[in-house]
Amino acid sequence: MDKSFKHLSDREALKVENEILKMKLTLERGGIFGKTDDPNFTPEMEHAFLQSIMEVERQFDERKAIQVFDKIGRPRCFNPAAELTDEELILALKELLYLLNEHRIILNVSDDSIKEREVYRFITEDLFYQEIHDFDIERTSVVVHFDKLDDDPEFENTMLAIEGCIRPILDKEPMERFFYFGLEQLKLNQHHNLTQEEFAILVNMFKQVYDELQVDEINETETILQENDCEVKGTYMVTAKAGKENCMLTGNWTVHFEKDLKEGHWYIVGVEIEGIDF
Which residue segment(s) compose the domain that 223 sits in? Predict the structure, then answer.
């Protein structure tokens, strides 16, 4: 309680403080506050309400962004859709939706014709890489809309190439997730016909050489989308630290996609990154 109100009773001082908070919100945020005749709405309840608004505004001003995958704790238990039977996928989707809801991320699927497998793929291959405001306020949720009509393979493949492939390869975290990769016959620089496990071993051996890997830039320069093939190209810059020595890793990168003709989905089948010896 503000000490300048010490001549007032606690209840009266709280009422004055509430009026000051409302004036502050009105002047700074354009808030409009009416009067209530509800006798059950006490000054204490009004104060808590006003404080919650102030906290929302504070967090909004900070505008902290976080990827959905990080927000939900970077789970490692969800396999790629292509590896799951229909029964396994339905169970995994239920668990995934529960996890999202637990972190107050609500998925709104606007079209009832969208199948569970498409929803699962959207969450694990798209939504995981979307950034949201990192609010930490009780009863505040983020609503994400999924509409099949919004499908844009050129944009989605570009985002998957950057956030689902190049960034996980270049940052220090071990690479363990392959939702968006083909199951086998993968290519990484000069290595061909790799399984996902062999691909991960090569990438993680590169990471172990350095104590720190800081991704400074990842840029897309060109996306070439054809009927069944897609190629995304770009550049990167990484600061690598080994012991007391720092060095810059830079160069061009290319991510190759192929379209699964049966399911109609795109999978990463090849990656080339200049300047790195895997």
Answer: 172-273
